[in-house]
Each structure stands twice: as C-alpha cells, then as structure tokens.
Specification:
The structure holds three protein chains of three kinds.
Chain A: H1 9-23, H2 32-46, H3 51-59, H4 65-71, H5 84-99, E1 108-112, H6 119-131, E2 140-146, H7 149-157, E3 159-161, H8 170-176, E4 177-181, E5 184-187, H9 189-194, E6 195-199, H10 205-209, E7 214-218, H11 228-240, E8 242-249, E9 264-267, E10 272-275
Parallel strand pairs in A: 1-2, 1-7, 2-6, 7-8
Antiparallel strand pairs in A: 3-5, 4-5, 8-10, 9-10
Chain B: H1 26-36, H2 42-49, H3 56-69, H4 72-78, H5 87-98, H6 101-112, H7 117-127, H8 132-145, H9 149-162, H10 168-177, H11 182-195
Chain C: E1 8-12, H1 16-28, E2 32-36, H2 39-48, E3 53-57, H3 65-73, E4 84-88, H4 93-102, E5 106-109, H5 114-124
Helix pairs in contact in C: 1-5, 2-3
Classes of the chains: A alpha/beta, B mainly alpha, C alpha/beta.
Chain lengths: 283, 198, 129
C-alpha cells in the first residue's frame, strides 16, 4: 500500500482554520495526528496528490466534502438515547418551563426534524415516559419529519437492530419492544401510534409552516452542512414554527453562531439550547 | 399509555400572506418580507423596505430574502448598505453578499477600490468567495496600493486561506512597507509560509 | 515573571490571524487560551465553560463585541462579572465610553502588540506582568 501524502504544519492549520470558520468545530493540537491523517486519507481517496488542489476542493465543498471530512470526527449513526444530555435537559428543564406557558388542556408539541428512521422521536417518547413525572397529566404530541420517504416508512414500521438499541437497558427493551425477527426489535404499537411521521423539507416554508407551532424542536446535525443562504432560511423556517419562548436543540458540535442570530442562547445544567425570544421583537 | 393520542390534523395556515412590507407589527412585516422572496416583484419590494426598517429581526429577514433570490438585481439592492454609517447594517449587508457569491461577484472589484477604507476592509471577505485566480489578482492589487493597516490585515487574513504563489511578491512588498507593525509582520509571515509550501 | 498558573482566557475576534497572534503570546506567557469568532459563539463558550478573562474585538458579524458584553452582563450567574478587555479600531473617547457603558473593564485601541496584550491580561488576572 502506498504511503499517504505527508501534511505540513501550515497545511494542517489552514484546514483547521477553514473548518472552524465554517462549522465551529475546533481541532486542537491534541487532534493534529488525526486531522493530518484524515487529510491524507481524503486526498488518497480522491486521487489528489497536491494539497493545494485538495484544499480548493474542500473550500468549494465539492460533492459534500466538508461533511465527508468531518464524518471521521463525529458519530453520525442514529441510535436510541443519542445525546442523552439533551433528553435530560428536556425533562428536567425545557418542558417544565414550557408547561407554564400552556393553557389548560393544550398539548406540548415536540418536533424531531430530520427524524431519519425514527430513533430520535421514539427516544423522546420513551424518555418522557420513563423520566418525566408530568407525562401522566400533560398531553404531549411528538412529530417526526424527514425529506426521505423511505426513512419515514421505516420509522412508521418501527423495527430496529441491535446497534440502534445499544444505549437502552434490557429492562427498557423488554418494556417497549417486541423481538420481531432475529436480532430485530419492533417498538410496541402504543408507541408507534404516539408519534406522527410526516414529510418535511426544511428549506420550504410552506412545508414547515403546515406543521404548526412547537414548544421544542430537535434539529440535529443537518443545518451545519447547508450553505450560508440555506442555513439562514432553514433557521427562519424553524423560528416560525417555534412558540415564543420555545426551544431548539442542535447537534453537540453545532452552534447557532454559524447559522443565525435569531435565537438566544440558554444554558441549563445538562445542555446549551437556543430559545425563540418571548417578546415580538428581539432585543 | 399517556402519550397515545390521535395526531392533530395538519395545520392549514391562515389565508393569504400579508402584502405590505412596511406596515403592521414587526411579526407581520417579518412574514411579509419572507413571502416577498418568492414573488416576481419581490426584489423591488424588499429593496424599498430596507432603508426604513429598524427592527433587527425584520432587517435580517430582508437580507436573507435578498440572499435567497441571489440575482444581479438583489445583489445590487444589498451592495449600497456596505457603505452605511450603521456598523450592524454594514455587517448584515456583507453577510448577505457573502451568502450569494455568484450574484455578488461583479461588485467585488469595485468595492475593493472604494474610497472608504471601511468598505474596502469589509469587501476583502467577499474575495473569499471568488474563484481563486480572481481573488488573488484583486487582493494583490489592493495590498500593493493600500495605505490603511486594517485593510491590509483584512486582505492578508483572506490570502492566508486562498493565497497562491503569484501574490508572494506583493506580500513581500507589504511586509517591507509595514515592517513596524508587529501584527502585520506576523500575519504576512503566516500567509507567506502557507502559500510558499511546495 | 510570575506564572499565571492556569488562568483561562477567551479570545474573541472574527479574524483567525488575530486570534492566533493573541493566542501564541498568551500561551507563551503561560495562559490557557480558548477562542470564539463572534459574539454568539462567545456567549455559548462563556456559559458552557470557565474563564478568568475575555478579550473581545468590537467589530464582528452575527453579534458584535459590545452586544456580547451587554448579554454577558445581563446573565444571572457569576459569568456576568467576567472581566472583559475590549479591543477596537476606534480611538475616540465616545467609543471608549460606549465600551465602558456596555461593561468593558479595559479598552485598548489597535494595533495591540503581543507584549501590550500580555501585560494588560496579566494585570487584569491579578498577576504582575
């Protein structure tokens, strides 16, 4: 196997500066070896031997290169109870704050978008049943949306493999899943019925708007890969679908600082989330 | 099980979008601005609303709408605001132009030659979105004639990312002219090191 | 020079080379350095981490330095009193006054040399420069 091309100090810095500016991910000295290797891997994989050529390719985000590069540093697979700290924040802080804004009998509405094959919205349902005391007295509506109709079909079907369930205890699995095939578990009918799955394109205000107003939105690991104009539009569309005082949670490597100034930062014990300001005008 | 409920019927948003971008509450103007982006006469409406709008969120939406449209006309509507006395308007205009690199392209050379150093400084950022050859040519010409340290610094910041060997001579001349400025000496050295890589 | 012993500084500026210029000087002087490139990110970092001082440029996109300071000073927790060194290109008295009104502890005008920065940061962190 031929050697991977060597990457110099300043080449490493150039890539780090660029990715930090675009995505907010900060690669420090500690990550140097991994970043240099990743650059070399991508160059080898693309058949590029000159760094300047690769860097121009990365800068232009040709063929989604930024996401491809960054993939090596993030866990992209979806599974139940991913980023559990946000779920903790949901039940410890976010919903309690939102409940105070509700009229009697009015449902709390939670949106998972994109929901992929359903792990995230089902996780929210499971988590609340297990961890939120008010779940018995407060109506909750959970919506999962995605642009991919095949993902939605899989989500509605609600069957998952071992890896998707790896963070769940055997007790939870026994309680909420039925083994439907060899090493496949299907989430129980009651929970399948408790999540509404819809198609939605985050870039289309007409599609986002028809979903109504939410108290909490989970929009993880997608916005940061859009271009500038698309991020701003998607952020506006999500803002429009949030109640004043409602919350939006991004992926843990994402930041609104790279996306939009519309939201305010709120720090809770378990997570940093973003909030649509309560008043009509942002101060 | 408490979460089980019949999903609510799909929301039908209330009737027609508001028409006026300059009347009503800020929420109403925000909605009207967003709707304008897809109207055939949208750019004219948005451009007309820009000078009078004071609400930061609505302003942001106007710029976002113009950036979405991304035509020569919409870029031309944004470009003058790079000259605004209001620093946040200048920054917002820059961000909007940055978000539509193709449409902004014809304006960059002129902005980099603007008599106002603040305009030249902000416009260096726009060179980042240009094809590399053009960016290098324009920034190289800029730094050769530039007297303002802050503008040179902004140009070198961009050259540290996009610079090619053809700008090394101009950078060297700059280093000599501004030898007394520790930050400029530092940043020109970094840019030079990066560009000079084989 | 007395070791700053683990004082953490947040450097906020939209230019990567400015952040690097300050970072190298501060790290040589023994400080730990983190960075942010606009006011929104600076708010997130300050809320999510522990810093002894923030060095912030006035002119940044998304949220400028003075707006960041006002947001910082409004916080309900201890972060609201985080010492802030503001750096600006404007030398007029009214700009310094505006910065102080927003909550700046110190106001420096560019160009700021590495020595000048380290000296101010050291003093503000309670260490002799």
């Amino acid at each position: 196997m031929s050697e991977l091309p060597a990457v110099s100090e300043e080449e490493f810095r150039k890539v780090c500066d660029f990715l930090y500016r675009r995505t907010g991910m900060l690669f420090t000295e500690a990550k140097r070896y991994y970043v240099q290797r990743r650059i070399a891997e991508r160059m080898a994989s693309l058949g590029i031997s000159v760094f300047a050529t690769y860097f121009a390719y990365l800068r232009g985000d040709a063929d989604g290169e930024i996401e491809k590069f960054v993939n090596a540093f993030t866990v992209n697979e979806t599974y139940f109870y991913r980023e559990e700290h946000q779920l903790r924040c949901l039940s410890s802080d976010l919903l309690n704050e939102r409940v105070r804004a509700k009229r009697p009998g009015e449902a709390l509405r939670i949106w998972s978008v994109p929901c992929s094959t359903g792990e995230e919205p089902y996780s929210i349902a499971l988590w609340l049943l297990e961890n939120w005391p008010a779940v018995d007295v407060q109506d909750i509506e959970i919506v999962g949306s995605d642009i991919d109709t095949e993902c939605l079909a899989a989500a509605r079907h609600g069957e998952f493999g071992q890896r998707a369930l790896m963070r769940l205890t055997p007790e939870l699995i026994a309680k909420y899943f039925v083994e439907s095939a060899h090493e496949r578990w299907r989430i129980v009918e009651d929970l399948r019925q408790s999540v509404q799955f819809t198609t939605a394109n985050l870039m289309d205000p007409a599609e986002t708007r028809r979903h109504g107003i939410f108290d909490v939105i989970f929009c993880r690991n997608v916005l940061i890969y859009f271009d500038d104009a698309s991020r701003r539009l998607a952020a506006e569309n999500l803002f429009e679908c949030l109640a004043p005082g409602g919350f939006i949670c991004l992926g843990h490597t994402e930041s609104m600082s790279r996306i939009s100034p519309l939201f305010e930062v709120r720090r809770f014990a378990d997570a940093i989330v973003y909030q649509r300001p309560k008043g009509g005008v942002r101060g | 099980m408490p979460l089980v409920r019949r999903p609510s019927p799909p929301f039908e948003p209330s009737a027609a979008a508001p028409v006026s971008l300059t009347e009503g509450t800020s929420d109403q103007r925000w909605a009207a601005v967003r709707a304008a982006a897809t109207r055939p006469d949208g750019v004219a409406l948005l451009a007309a609303a820009l000078p009078q709008e004071r609400d930061p969120r609505v302003l942001e939406a106007i710029f976002t709408a113009l950036a979405r449209v991304a035509t020569a006309e919409s870029a031309a509507a944004v470009a003058p605001f790079i000259r605004s006395d209001d620093a946040s308007l200048r920054a917002a205009a820059l961000d909007a132009l940055r978000a539509m690199p193709e449409a902004s392209r014809p304006h960059v050379a002129r902005l980099l030659a603007d008599p106002d150093p603040d305009v030249r400084l902000l416009s260096c950022e726009l060179a980042r979105g240009l094809p590399e050859g053009e960016a290098n040519r324009l920034l190289s010409a800029l730094i050769d004639g530039e007297a303002e340290k802050n503008v040179v610094a902004a140009a070198v910041e961009v050259l540290a990312e996009v610079g090619r060997p053809e700008v090394l001579a101009a950078l060297a001349r700059c280093a000599e002219r501004f030898a007394g400025d520790p930050f400029l000496a530092f940043s020109i050295k970094v840019a030079t090191d990066r560009i000079g890589e084989p | 020079m007395v070791e700053p012993a683990g004082k953490r500084i947040l450097v906020v500026d939209d230019a990567s080379l400015v952040r690097r210029f300050y970072r190298e000087a501060l790290e040589r002087a023994g400080f730990e350095v983190d960075e942010a490139l606009n006011g929104v990110e600076a708010v997130e970092k300050v809320l999510g981490g522990i810093y002894d001082l923030v060095v912030v440029d006035v002119n940044m996109p998304q949220m400028d330095g003075l707006t960041f300071l006002k947001v910082l000073r409004r916080q309900a927790t201890a972060v609201s009193s985080l010492p802030a060194l503001v750096i600006s290109t404007e030398a007029a008295a009214q700009d310094a006054a505006a910065a102080r009104a927003a909550g700046a502890n110190f106001y420096l005008v560019k160009p700021v040399s590495q020595e000048w920065l380290v000296e101010h940061v050291s003093i503000m962190c309670g260490r002799p420069a």
